[in-house]
Amino acid sequence: MRLQTVLRVAIIVALSASSVAASSDVSAALSELMTRLQLQHAKLWFAGKLSNWSLANYEIQQIDANLEATSRLLANPSQADRAREQIRAVRQALQSKDVPAFMTSYADLTNECNACHRSSGYAGIVMQIPLALPVPNQLFVDQVSEGRAIANASCGSCHVVSDAAKEAPAFRPPPPGFLEIISRPTFSADGLRHFLTSGHRRLGPDQAMPNPRLSESQVEAVVAYLETLRADQRR
User: Disulfide: which of 55, 59, 111, 194 matches 44 by Cβ 3.0-4.6 Å?
Assistant: First the structure.
């Protein structure tokens, strides 16, 4: 009888310890997911505000996936589902590339996050629209779109920037188009940087090209555009 009692106590203690461990694991997993969501929430704001639609769509996909994972850990999954309903409004604003609609839907999503925190007993965790960049080592502007605009403005009068160019170059025969340039075996991002940052007044083998005098950030935007153009051609 004494042995049976000892065994029962041992089983109860083991089950209790297992329950505590499981609860601790869930809490740790939720904490990790919330940390990810906080960073993605901030990145989404700056990407959408600055019309970087590709980055904003990426961040909203990450948020949606992490909320799905969160709902599987919650005792009441509908708490996360309500936030996911707000995500649909954000997606719609991103698809239409509507900055005011994005800002409104983002604020609604933020409010729903705080409502979920309060209903879960975490009223002290309050989200807000970010006031500063979440990380110092990432650009939130659409660098490729900026590079395309710079290329059209600075190079489009002579070069065909893309197949969709509406105006023919002024020179006959024209200088090589961008699609030809990026198809050359000698093309490289470093070579393009070196070429565009030259201090000479005129550039190229015959010094036929006037130096566009681009800033460092403008050069990087043009490099990003041409590298993306080349990657698209290879797909």
Answer: 59
Reduce the secondary structure of 15-80 to three states and give it as a string. HHHHHHHHHHHHHHHHHHHHHHHHHHHHHHHHHHHCCCHHHHHHHHHHHHHHHHHHHCCCCCCHHH
- The domain segmentation of the chain, as residue ranges, is 2-119, 143-234
pLDDT at 80 over 50: yes
The tokens of 9 are what? 């106590």
96-123: pLDDT as tens digits: 999 999 999 999 999 999 998 898 888 9
Place of tokens 């699609």: 179
CA distance 104 to 86: 11
The single-letter DSSP state of residue 205 is T
User: CATH top-level class for 143-234?
Assistant: mainly alpha
* Amino acid found at 136: P
